[in-house]
User: Which sequence fits this backbone?
């Protein structure tokens, strides 16, 4: 069972995908993911004061993973 999606999002994961891309464009999400990747290799925070925004975006990435899994498991021909 997904942990970060709401009940409504579990029932309709494609609706979350719409919200995901309304929040940021694909280009901005890619930039954001690359920033997360770079931050993972530092032993100190290089984005002081921005932690709340990064936590929110990280939760969106978790939800994206869960929504994609739900869509795949429901509609995959395998």
Assistant:
């Amino acid at each position: 069972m997904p942990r970060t999606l709401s009940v409504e999002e579990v029932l309709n994961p494609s609706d979350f995908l719409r919200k995901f891309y309304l929040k940021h464009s694909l280009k901005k999400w890619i930039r954001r993911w690359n920033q997360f990747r770079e931050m993972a290799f530092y032993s100190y925070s290089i984005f002081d004061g921005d932690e709340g925004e990064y936590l929110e975006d990280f939760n969106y990435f978790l939800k994206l993973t869960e929504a994609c899994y739900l869509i795949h498991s429901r509609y995959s021909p395998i």
